[in-house]
Amino acid sequence: IHPDRETLAGSGPLVIAIDNGWASASRWELRQKMVTALLDRAERDSRPVILLPTASPPNSALAPLSSAKAREVAASLMPLPFEPRRDKAAAALQRDLTDAGEYSIYWLSDGLDYGHAEGFAKTLGMLTTAAVNVMRPGDGESALALHGGVGKGGALSATITRAGGGPRSGTVVAYSSRNEILGRAGFKLDRGTLTATAEFDLPLEIRNQVARLEIAGETSAGAVHLLDSRSQWRRVGIVSGETRELAQPLLSPLYYVERALSPYAEIVASHEVNTAAAISQLLERNLSVLVLADIGKLVPGTLRRVEDWISRGGTLVRFAGPRLEKSGTGLLPIPLRQGGRTLGGSLSWSEPQPLAPFDDKSPFHGLLVSPEIKVNRQVLADPSAQINADIWARLKDGTPLVSATQRGNGRIVLFHITANSDWSNLPMSGLFVEMLRRIVERSLITPGRAEGAPTNGAPVHIRAQT
User: Fold this and answer.
1) Is residue 309 a contact partner of residue 254, using CB atoms and an 8 Å limit?
2) Alpha helices in 103-143 (DSSP H)
3) Alpha helix (H) ranges present in 184-299?
4) Cα–Cα distance between 101 and 113 in angstroms, integer?
5) Are 168 and 137 in contact (CB under 8 A)?
6) How far apart are CA 4 and CA 349, in angstroms?
7) pLDDT by residue (tens digit) across 90-145?
8) Contact at 8 Å (CB) between 154 and 201?
9) In the chain, how long is the greatest CA-to-CA distance?
10) Among 110, 173, 313, 377, which one has the highest count of C-beta atoms within 10 angstroms of its own C-beta?
């Protein structure tokens, strides 16, 4: 359409309805040129003009403007970061314009429906006996919307969406909070394809600095996605007191932990057989969470390193087991009684204990507790010791199942059962997944680094989700 070369229909005012919502922003300069061309034609024909921005329809009555005044108003229009309010624009037209057949009508549409495009077009059609001129984006020029999040295997990904159109390609750019470019990822939309995905290949430390994703060249609110902590990825190190190569998969102390956390975190495990060496190696990987499954007493040097890491913001998650039951004394939320409680033992239950509902101060509050989850054995708090820890989960008889305490900027969490199904069927449940997920989500993304610590540790095995 070339409005500067066409004759305006009717003899009354020129009505220009212009979508100025988020989807109009990327082609706003072209829309301004269209409006200018229409105003030039109206000026030559001495026709008054009615401007109607659909994202910001006026509350006052629509009134014809001179071409000069209309140019001032048009120059002040800007795309707004929300969808057009065409229903309100239609109500304004029905309220103020009643002389059907006299108007020359142009609608500069953004090409999206929003559920009320047809009704708005009918309202415009009632004002003229001539056809309503609708200008839409060209093939392959429809608005793009962006949504960022966590993709397969924890990769940072972006989903690009459009209403339709021809082939199109582009680039999504990742920015830090300081507006630094951290990465780029391309995407391609074939004809008729409505969605595409762009995935970023970034190291975890860089990935977690991404604060904003943008489609390059798309200057609209819909082409920007701001990221929060939910999109950030934690690194979780896991160590077991049992040799991994000798453990059967379903009996391994770490099997259920890995399965529970692999969709939500990067799981790293050391190949070192020596527990102290394995822990030291993992701590060099800038962990958010360290999981120790049935680890007894730590050697002094390792103990100091873990304590320092916790004080700087690390989260230590420990699971009970025979080794911890016999010799676990340090890095616990509460002192433990030597020897635990087991079904049929000296401190026994007559039957396996179910879980009590989580109280409102627990981070697990709101999770549903299945009556089918039972505990056959647990480590107990020392009754003679003063307990200052938080109890996040209890059994029905009131004894702790999960305890926690703050240490410096970090936290120590203890599950009073094993990480596998030896003492309870909790690790086999969906509740276990959600409990671990909430613990990880509460952890710091990047605990402070010890002074003089290396930036890169020795190679470790990164266990991917299968």
Assistant:
1) no
2) 117-125
3) 204-207, 255-261, 275-283
4) 26
5) no
6) 90
7) 999 888 887 666 789 999 999 999 988 999 999 998 888 788 899 988 888 889 99
8) no
9) 102
10) 110
Which tokens in the block code for residue 106? 């142009």
- What is each CA distance from 257 to 55, 249, 427, 440, in whole angstroms? 50, 12, 8, 12
User: Which tokens in the block code for residue 328?
Assistant: 């676990």
Highest mean pLDDT among 5-9, 56-60, 289-293: 289-293
Residue that the structure tokens 């047809």 belong to: 118
Q: 322-353 burial, b for 16+ CB within 10 Å, e for fewer?
A: bbbbeebeebbbbebbeebbbeeeeeebeeeb
Asked if 155 contacts 208 with a C-beta cutoff of 8 angstroms, the reply is no
Highest averaged pLDDT of the listed ranges 10-24, 344-358, 401-415:
401-415
Check residues 247 and 260 and name the one with the higher pLDDT. Answer: 260
Phi and psi at residue 260, to the nearest 5°: -70, -40
Among 263, 261, 251, CA closest to 289: 261
Please report, for residues 87, 103, 136, 153, 167, the alpha-carbon distance to residue 190 in angstroms, rounded to integers and kept in the order given: 33, 40, 20, 26, 4
CA of 401: how far to CAs of 259, 418, 428, in Å?
21, 11, 16
| 8 A C-beta contact, residue 183 and residue 200 | yes
Task: Provide the 3-class DSSP secondary structure of residue 75.
Answer: helix
**Structural domains of the chain, ranges and CATH numbers in brackets:** 3-135 (3.40.50.410), 145-230 (no CATH), 233-441 (3.40.50.880)
190 pLDDT exceeds 60?
yes
- Residue 35 pLDDT greater than 90, yes or no: yes
Distance from C-alpha of 280 to C-alpha of 305, rounded to nearest angstrom: 8
| Strand residue runs (E) in 162-306 | 168-176, 181-189, 195-199, 210-215, 224-226, 234-240, 265-269, 289-293
Helix (H) or strand (E) holding 431: helix 430-441
**Whole-model pTM over 0.90:** no
* Secondary structure of residue 87 in the 3-state scheme: helix
Question: What is the rounded radius of gyration, in angstroms, for the C-alpha atoms of the chain?
Answer: 32
Whose CA is closest to 147, among 223, 74, 75, 71? 223
Q: Please write the tens of the pLDDT for every residue from 331-389.
A: 999 888 765 555 444 455 568 899 999 999 999 999 999 999 999 999 988 776 666 88
- Residues whose CB falls within 8 Å of the CB of residue 36, separated by 6 or more in sequence, listed in order: 71, 74
Q: What share of the chain in percent tops pLDDT 70?
A: 87
Beta bridge partners of 21: none
Residue whose token pair is 């309870």: 424
Here the tokens at position 37 are 């061309």
Instruction: Give the integer Cα–Cα distance in Å for 292 and 315.
Output: 11
| CA–CA dist 385, 388 (Å, integer) | 9
